[in-house]
Amino acid sequence: MRRILLLLAASTALLLAACAQNVRNDSLVATLNAYGSAVRWNGLESGLQFVDPEVLKAHPPTDFDLARYRQVRVSDYDDGSGPVALGSEKVQQTVRISFVNIHTQAERSIVAQQVWRYDEKAKHWWLESGLPDIDKH
Which one-letter DSSP state was computed for residue 122? Predict the structure, then answer.
């Protein structure tokens, strides 16, 4: 009987761990989709709500940065490769972002390396790498 109880307890622990992992993965997918939609339809500046608060505190965007983000419209956001685990609490995702300068109508693309961190306490994924540098060549 004791063996059955131990087996049941171990099975329950594994099931709970798997459920927690599924919740974390579902949260990641929802966050990545929400971020992609936000920057695609509302502009790069809208991505600030996804940036890790500690990163924003240490490196707040300047007025010039915000003006540059308002100067472009995202025309394509391709996250084709999907996220890659960097450990249990971090993932990296490579995305190609195409945008059009609203003044010149010139289009260009950048490749952004995003690092996302899971905050266990808040049960939330944060963009640790910050918003993309749209002045990269």
Answer: T
The CATH class that applies to domain 2-127 reads: alpha beta
In the three-class reduction of DSSP (H, G, I as helix; E, B as strand; rest coil), residue 14 is classed as helix
Q: Is the pLDDT of residue 68 over 70?
A: yes
pLDDT of 9 above 50:
no
Cα angle 117-44-129, degrees, rounded to a multiple of 5: 25
For residues 106 and 36, the answer to whether their CB atoms sit within 8 Å is: no
Q: Is 60 exceeded by the pLDDT of residue 103? A: yes
Residue 91 three-state SS: strand
In this structure, are residues 60 and 48 in contact, taking their beta carbons and an 8 Å threshold?
A: no
- Provide the residue ranges of all domains of the chain, joining segments of one domain with +: 2-127
Q: Are 19 and 46 in contact (CB under 8 A)?
A: no
Other C-beta atoms lying within 10 Å of the C-beta of residue 133: 11
Q: What is the pTM of this model?
A: 0.81
Distance CA 24, CA 64 (A): 35
